[in-house]
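Sanity check record (used in CI):
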Amino acid sequence: MKINKAFHQYAGMLTLIGGALAAGNVHAQSEATECIAPAKPGGGYDLTCRLAANGLEETGMIDQPMAVSYMPGGIGAVAYNHVNGVRNDDPNLIVAASTGAAVNLALEKFGEYEADAVRWLGALGVDYGAIVVKDDAPWENLDELMEDLSDSPDDIAFGAGGTVGSQDWMKAALTAKSADIDPKSLNYVAFEGGGEALAALLGDHIQVFTGDLSELKSQLESGKIRVLASLSEERMEGPYADIPTAEEQGYDVQWPIWRGYYMGPNVDDEAYEAWAERLSELSKSDEFSQLREDRGLFPMSRFGDDFNDYVLEQVETFESLADEVGLKQ
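Expected output for Putative tricarboxylic transport membrane protein:
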């Protein structure tokens, strides 16, 4: 299997990298800590690892820098297989994950290992989905959009930076489903990224953009867009304070894009609980609040068993939707 071959190759590379990094540090702990970003440098998983690494170091919760290693491949599958097959009991290793990992697990893209094959550790930040239209669109609220969508789904083009089955498509599909509209009836246009999709909205090539709140700030300030709903549990603060949630408009749909971590399946309870407590304390610090805000994230504090249960429930929701619209092969 290609995934297995790839992660064994990366395992050897990481052993060398980890040894080199550890050798250069004075050990205040028994072993150095490490975060694996399951992608190339510079992306969202890198941000997630750096969020923990920088936060823990700046608050003095670790005495030496946390090593950040990169393990791209299989949209996270290579790292997931590596942790299960090679480093399943490493008490000093955490791995970056996100809502995207939960989606891919639901779509069975991680090979033989399922969602409960690891110990989901916690989330330090979150972004939220949003239903966005142009400022001159005919819809003033989500009700008006859903009414027209129910009558003429082909006439309203949704667009976002991902194909059918992606996170951005899931936002549109779950919103439609909450209004008893068949997600398979959506007229959905896939773009290479959120920026391209937003440009298509402003250029009248699509009518609805399912993006993330954090990427909308400049457009909100310019008055070029109207956000019909945030897919958050409650209204956000600051520039997003006037945006109603989908739920307060009567639509039971939320889309948190969490930034979190997991550990190997055989990590003992003591190490797992110590990490959960460490991240929980980090999330409460003023220094970390600024780090999180600088990265365009909102607060999210779920740790330990609470977060583990949350992720598993989320995967079940995605599995049900994937089955309903025929996404599973």
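The beta strands are 34-37, 67-70, 93-98, 119-134, 157-160, 187-190, 208-212, 225-230, 256-263, 302-303. If this sentence no longer matches the regenerated tokens, the check is flagged for review.
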